[in-house]
Design brief:
single chain, about 90 residues, 4-stranded mixed β-sheet, globular
């Protein structure tokens, strides 16, 4: 049975590496069950911040991440954002 996620309560960044195209590959785990990765290779001209995306509706560990109908400005608590401090591999 596939379960759908749209409420992200915790994000753990598990690995940072340099991809074949010299982009930064970020591996992460959401809510301790959904593991995925994204590549950071483009900086927004408007904001100066990295642009990133990951594939919605991918099935990972019997979970599917979906996009919320409405975006929110709600911030995640800092203690629920965990970084791997090993540096870039």
């Amino acid at each position: 049975m596939t379960r759908v996620y749209s409420d992200i309560e915790k994000v753990e960044f598990t690995k940072f590496s340099v991809g074949p195209m010299k982009d930064l590959v970020v591996n992460f785990k959401i809510n301790d069950v959904y593991s995925d990765d994204t590549s950071l290779s483009t900086i927004s001209a408007e904001t100066g911040k990295w642009l990133y995306s990951f594939n919605f509706m991918n099935n990972r560990n019997e979970y599917v991440l979906e996009r919320k109908e409405k975006s929110t400005d709600k911030k995640m608590a800092e203690e629920n954002i965990i970084y791997n401090n090993k540096g870039v591999e």
